[in-house]
Design a protein that fits this description.
alpha/beta
Protein backbone atom coordinates (compact mmCIF):
# COMPACT_ATOMS: atom_id res chain seq x y z
CA UNK A 1 0.00 0.00 0.00
CA UNK A 2 2.70 2.48 1.00
CA UNK A 3 4.78 1.78 -2.08
CA UNK A 4 1.74 2.41 -4.27
CA UNK A 5 0.70 5.67 -2.60
CA UNK A 6 0.98 8.70 -4.87
CA UNK A 7 -0.67 11.59 -2.99
CA UNK A 8 -1.35 11.04 0.69
CA UNK A 9 -0.72 8.61 3.54
CA UNK A 10 -2.57 8.79 6.83
CA UNK A 11 -1.30 6.70 9.73
CA UNK A 12 -3.27 6.50 12.97
CA UNK A 13 -1.94 4.54 15.90
CA UNK A 14 -2.02 4.07 19.61
CA UNK A 15 1.73 3.54 19.98
CA UNK A 16 4.78 3.97 17.73
CA UNK A 17 8.09 2.34 18.63
CA UNK A 18 11.43 1.43 17.00
CA UNK A 19 9.81 -1.85 16.00
CA UNK A 20 7.91 -0.02 13.26
CA UNK A 21 11.14 1.25 11.66
CA UNK A 22 10.69 -0.65 8.36
CA UNK A 23 7.23 0.73 7.61
CA UNK A 24 8.11 4.22 8.82
CA UNK A 25 11.16 4.29 6.54
CA UNK A 26 8.97 3.27 3.58
CA UNK A 27 6.51 6.04 4.42
CA UNK A 28 9.35 8.56 4.75
CA UNK A 29 10.78 7.55 1.38
CA UNK A 30 7.35 8.14 -0.17
CA UNK A 31 7.58 11.76 1.01
CA UNK A 32 11.03 12.14 -0.52
CA UNK A 33 10.72 10.14 -3.72
CA UNK A 34 7.08 10.80 -4.72
CA UNK A 35 6.22 13.91 -2.68
CA UNK A 36 3.48 12.02 -0.83
CA UNK A 37 1.93 14.07 1.99
CA UNK A 38 2.08 12.15 5.30
CA UNK A 39 -0.03 12.71 8.38
CA UNK A 40 0.56 10.72 11.56
CA UNK A 41 -1.99 10.85 14.36
CA UNK A 42 -1.42 9.07 17.62
CA UNK A 43 -2.09 8.85 21.29
CA UNK A 44 0.22 11.00 23.44
CA UNK A 45 2.62 11.47 20.53
CA UNK A 46 5.12 13.47 22.54
CA UNK A 47 6.10 10.13 24.14
CA UNK A 48 6.55 8.46 20.73
CA UNK A 49 8.35 11.21 18.80
CA UNK A 50 11.89 9.98 19.62
CA UNK A 51 11.13 6.58 18.04
CA UNK A 52 9.48 8.21 15.02
CA UNK A 53 12.33 10.65 14.49
CA UNK A 54 14.99 7.93 14.80
CA UNK A 55 13.25 5.82 12.14
CA UNK A 56 12.68 8.77 9.79
CA UNK A 57 15.61 9.33 7.38
CA UNK A 58 17.05 12.83 7.69
CA UNK A 59 16.78 13.48 3.94
CA UNK A 60 13.00 12.98 3.94
CA UNK A 61 10.43 15.74 4.51
CA UNK A 62 8.89 15.71 7.96
CA UNK A 63 5.36 14.35 8.40
CA UNK A 64 2.53 16.32 9.92
CA UNK A 65 2.09 14.90 13.43
CA UNK A 66 -0.95 15.23 15.67
CA UNK A 67 -1.51 14.00 19.19
CA UNK A 68 -4.48 12.97 21.23
CA UNK A 69 -3.58 14.32 24.66
CA UNK A 70 -4.15 12.49 27.92
CA UNK A 71 -7.59 12.91 29.44
CA UNK A 72 -7.14 14.44 32.91
CA UNK A 73 -10.44 12.90 34.02
CA UNK A 74 -9.80 9.36 32.80
CA UNK A 75 -6.32 7.79 32.61
CA UNK A 76 -7.63 4.90 30.50
CA UNK A 77 -9.22 7.05 27.77
CA UNK A 78 -7.09 7.07 24.62
CA UNK A 79 -6.95 7.22 20.86
CA UNK A 80 -6.71 3.48 20.31
CA UNK A 81 -7.32 3.23 16.55
CA UNK A 82 -4.79 1.56 14.25
CA UNK A 83 -5.18 2.56 10.64
CA UNK A 84 -3.23 3.13 7.44
CA UNK A 85 -4.94 4.96 4.57
CA UNK A 86 -3.32 5.57 1.19
CA UNK A 87 -4.65 8.11 -1.29
CA UNK A 88 -8.08 8.14 0.37
CA UNK A 89 -9.00 4.95 -1.44
CA UNK A 90 -7.28 2.04 0.32
CA UNK A 91 -7.27 1.44 4.07
CA UNK A 92 -5.79 -1.13 6.38
CA UNK A 93 -7.83 -1.26 9.57
CA UNK A 94 -5.96 -3.39 12.07
CA UNK A 95 -5.61 -4.39 15.69
CA UNK A 96 -1.81 -4.12 15.43
CA UNK A 97 0.09 -1.31 17.10
CA UNK A 98 3.00 0.23 15.21
CA UNK A 99 5.51 -1.66 17.35
CA UNK A 100 7.67 -4.78 17.04
CA UNK A 101 5.16 -6.91 18.91
CA UNK A 102 2.18 -5.46 17.05
CA UNK A 103 3.76 -5.94 13.63
CA UNK A 104 5.82 -9.11 14.08
CA UNK A 105 5.18 -11.01 17.32
CA UNK A 106 1.52 -10.80 18.33
CA UNK A 107 -1.44 -12.51 16.78
CA UNK A 108 -3.22 -9.56 15.19
CA UNK A 109 -5.81 -9.16 12.49
CA UNK A 110 -6.51 -6.50 9.91
CA UNK A 111 -8.76 -5.83 6.97
CA UNK A 112 -7.72 -4.12 3.77
CA UNK A 113 -10.56 -2.06 2.33
CA UNK A 114 -10.57 -0.62 -1.18
CA UNK A 115 -13.59 1.50 -2.02
CA UNK A 116 -14.77 5.08 -2.46
CA UNK A 117 -16.03 5.10 1.16
CA UNK A 118 -12.47 4.97 2.52
CA UNK A 119 -12.28 8.73 2.01
CA UNK A 120 -14.72 9.04 4.92
CA UNK A 121 -12.01 7.72 7.26
CA UNK A 122 -9.73 10.52 6.14
CA UNK A 123 -12.55 13.04 6.53
CA UNK A 124 -13.22 11.80 10.07
CA UNK A 125 -9.61 12.28 11.17
CA UNK A 126 -9.43 15.64 9.35
CA UNK A 127 -12.48 16.70 11.38
CA UNK A 128 -10.68 15.74 14.61
CA UNK A 129 -7.83 18.01 13.50
CA UNK A 130 -10.17 20.85 12.50
CA UNK A 131 -12.08 20.63 15.78
CA UNK A 132 -8.86 20.61 17.81
CA UNK A 133 -9.55 17.17 19.29
CA UNK A 134 -6.07 16.16 18.18
CA UNK A 135 -3.36 18.80 18.43
CA UNK A 136 -0.37 19.52 16.20
CA UNK A 137 2.86 18.17 17.63
CA UNK A 138 6.20 19.75 16.82
CA UNK A 139 8.51 17.33 14.98
CA UNK A 140 11.71 19.09 15.94
CA UNK A 141 13.43 17.99 19.16
Amino acid sequence: MVQGARQEILIVGYVFTEGARAILEQVAMATRDRRVRVTIIGNRMEEHLPALRSAWPADCPEPRVFSCKANPHDDMAALHAKLLVCDGSTALVTSANFSRHGLYENIEIGVKVECAGVVRLVEFFNSLIAEGLVKPTMWAA
